[in-house]
Amino acid sequence: SHGHTVYQPGMVDRRSADAALADDLAHALDHDELYVLFQPIVDTATGRTLGAEALLRWEHPTRGPIGPDKFIPVAERTGVIIPVGLWVLEQALAQVGTLGADRYISVNLSPRQLREPTIVHDVLAALNRTGVPATRLVLEVTESALVDDDSGIAALHQLRSHGVRIAVDDFGTGYSSLQYLTRLPVDILKIDRSFVATMDGTPSGAAVATAIIYLANVLNMRTIAEGIETTEQAEELRALGCETGQGYLYAKPLTPDALLSRLSASLG
Ligand code: C2E
Ligand code: CA
Ligand code: CA
Ligand code: CA
């Protein structure tokens, strides 16, 4: 590197591509290009909605929709995830009134957000501003966010002492040892979609899900299965002791209006 970039067609400098996307993303927040969808989390035995997960969407003015799998990692590397993540939290808390009853809202918290020294204050301030009880918020963190981040773990302990519940997202896909789980302030393990997808009625197809459900029971945690697409998967999960899940079988991520109609219909 000689202090300048030589552009060659077909060759993309990741840092400048990231920077362009990150600039657009910072702009997106100010120009209403971001919105949040809500995927119901259901009791698979009754179909009743127990809560909803907030999932961020970006409609780029020229590039069209950009998926979170593409822009969240960029936002994470550049730090734009901090204002964007807090905005998602506010949007999600604003939906709690729509949810009614005792339903909860689940919000993804990125590793970068967890490392922010002000994260506990920011979450509690958002709860205060919106008047939402802490017990109706679930924060989803990934395993990798928890490894080697003692201050992040301390932040989760504090949030949990206020009543916020903590879920480990994509559980089982990280590279951490299981031992760490016994030390963590965790209420829920989310069984990753990849382990639900292998469920085919055979013991080996259900091996990882079986192990996660067993572990959760021993550690007094709940489980939520992700990416349930077939009734067979739902039934097999129930037989194993996991009765809470989300997936296209029940509902895709919905706009607030669509969520409201679903909740007011008998689908509940
Ligand atoms: P995730 O947290 O694991 O979210 C679940 C993803 O699975 C969502 O993808 C959801 O739309 C998708 N999904 C749900 N049910 C099914 C199903 O039955 N089949 C299949 N094939 N997929 C299903 P989405 O919305 O594209 O989000 C992708 C990832 O982006 C999320 O994975 C999460 O890691 C990240 N993300 C989304 N919104 C936010 C956010 O506000 N903050 C942060 N930090 N990350 C976010
Ligand atoms: Ca999640
Ligand atoms: Ca997940
Ligand atoms: Ca995922």
UniProtKB/TrEMBL annotation:
Name of the protein described by the UniProt record: Diguanylate cyclase (GGDEF)-like protein
Domain EAL: 18-267
Superkingdom field: Bacteria
Parent-protein residues present: 471 to 738 of 738
